[in-house]
Amino acid sequence: MKYYSLNHNAPKVSFQEAVIQGLASDKGLYFPETIMPLGEAFFETIENLSNEEIAFEAIKQFVGDEIPENILKEIITETLCFNFPVVMVEKDIYSLELFHGPTMAFKDVGARFMSRCLAYFNRDKKDNKNTVLVATSGDTGGAVASGFLGVKGVDVIILYPSGKVSDIQERQLTTLGQNITALEVDGVFDDCQDMVKKAFLDADLKDKNLTSANSINIARWLPQMFYFFFAYKALKKQNKPLIFSCPSGNFGNICAGIIAKKMGLPIEHFVASTNVNDTVPRFLENGTYAPKPSKTTISNAMDVGNPSNFIRIQEMYQNDLKQFKKDFSAFTFSDEETLEAMKYIYNTDGYIAEPHGAVGYLGLKKELQNHENAIGIFLETAHPIKFLDTVEPTLNIKLPIPPQIESVMDKEKVSIKIKTYEDLKAFLQK
Questions:
Q1: What mean pLDDT is predicted for residues 80-108?
Q2: For the whole model, what pTM was predicted?
Q3: Domains of the chain, CATH where assigned
């Protein structure tokens, strides 16, 4: 498998090169040269397969022969060390819970998969280290910190916007130490992401072997397709069309879902549910892609004004907006609507949704009006405990602290404050 830059001005590379480089030399995101549909027999018998077997069949074409099959299977087994329950919330509406991993966020899958791929690629290196540079709007930092903690030959530097992640999210990325360093940026997530992209293309930093663990990196992004296969397996017997609603910030999850559909997974429709950071909903309305600076909301992991992965989605539809709209809708919701949805879901169904899941629920309800006899699935991307300052007073409940979170609550937060790209560059050059 070869990967090409979506800016179409850089050489094609292997899976290993794409993972290590993160971003192409022309600033483009890497994209697989081909997407091969899986055979009908795979989908006919999917309910008889384990999650590990499903994931292997889904990902192997994108890895090719660059990781031996037995090693790839080990990586998948270590990645999928937790459950992905599909929970009925109300009639024909389900929550796909992606928060049962080590850091209680969906990004555990991609972070664990990528860290193990990178460890395999570094297996024979003596002194030459990779530096993983990652921007986070919330959960990415903790998942990457946990996934890469102690990985040989890899240093991890996490940039996060000061005061714009929850206390628990901040603790998960600032308390681990070892090969993990947290940089607290005076700005918003887009500032962090811009700094990361700029560092990759800085000739003065070429000797630092920089790579990304954001969803711009194919090894972080592609495994997110697994969720959609697992949900299909769980709901296949109901024999109804499936509508997936993804709370969307950088658009990695929904982009991975579209990859799964291109591989033959029977998905009727996708909904990108956003908060007031509405770049994509506006694009679907007027056909103009016009990013704006991100705004702070209670669903902070979606506070992204210029979603990186949307260009990958456009590539899969050859930038044909008419074809795109057949498979894809996008809706935007305010914090007030989000809070009301959280109350409604809890009071009506007894289900505790955090802000991102509630936005996904709202988008799903809106789209289901256009699909009779369909089943709707919204992605619950993080455990409610990560947003207890919002969840507890809104629902008037007290959440128990899970062991994964309790383990970081009493640790000291350690971060380095920076303001500009030059501050980041100086830190990397030290």
A1: 95
A2: 0.91
A3: 83-105+221-400 (3.40.50.1100)
